[in-house]
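Holo prediction. Input below; ligand is adenosine monophosphate.
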Amino acid sequence: MDVILFGPPGAGKGTQSKFLEGVLGVPQISTGDMMRAERKTGSDLGKQFDQYMSSGLLVPDGLVIGLLETRLRMRDAVGGAIFDGFPRTLAQATSLDSMLGGLSRKINLVLSLEVPTSMIVDRISGRRVCLDCGQAYHVRYSPPPATGYCGSCGGTRLVQRSDDTESVVRTRHASYLAETLPILGHYGGQVVVTVDGTGSVQEVTEQLLSVISAR
Ligand code: ADP
Ligand code: AMP
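Structure of the complex:
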């Protein structure tokens, strides 16, 4: 099954993708995580990503699509994937369609998380991520274990993402509205299912699972 987890920055896509991986038996493919990993290597490609990411702008389509093509060819993605943070433009959506078409696959479901802007600001400002494995926490809603170590990998460095500052988040939200939201029209009513993303992590997971099991 190929599923897009759709929604504005901070809606909970990464958090929910991690649960859905276990249920659907397919990997989460997060272009944001892949770019942060590349950035950490200090490579030229990572530096190119950083030019855009640090100011909240979208990385150019050519670079993102290349990254995704390589990832889709990996063995664990042969039976499907959960796309998190991709596609973010219409050009990325049409490329994804043709990449999947070449594998006799298509997007089966777009789960669109709806969360009001005020709640997104609250979620992003409280987000902390593990510098070692990328696991996201929230200072109030999903706090890390009391030990202060990452519950996933034991890492000790739980930090605020450098692009989670107010001005960068504003730019990211603006590109979501201008460039990413129109993708919903591209996929259309049959495939797109809107899910209320305002409940607790567990409540949202339950809603997503009920949509998936009804398919
Ligand atoms: P996205 O991947 O869409 O940018 P994340 O999954 O990283 O969003 O979630 C953003 C922040 O909100 C994180 O700090 C996460 O712990 C928190 N969060 C995610 N889902 C919920 C929820 N349903 N209720 C409260 N906080 C949440
Ligand atoms: P995310 O981790 O999804 O919040 O993405 C963090 C940043 O990475 C974004 O603000 C963009 O700069 C960049 N990025 C991630 N995915 C994409 C994408 N599909 N297209 C363009 N830029 C992306």
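The chain has a mean pLDDT of 96. That is the main takeaway for now.
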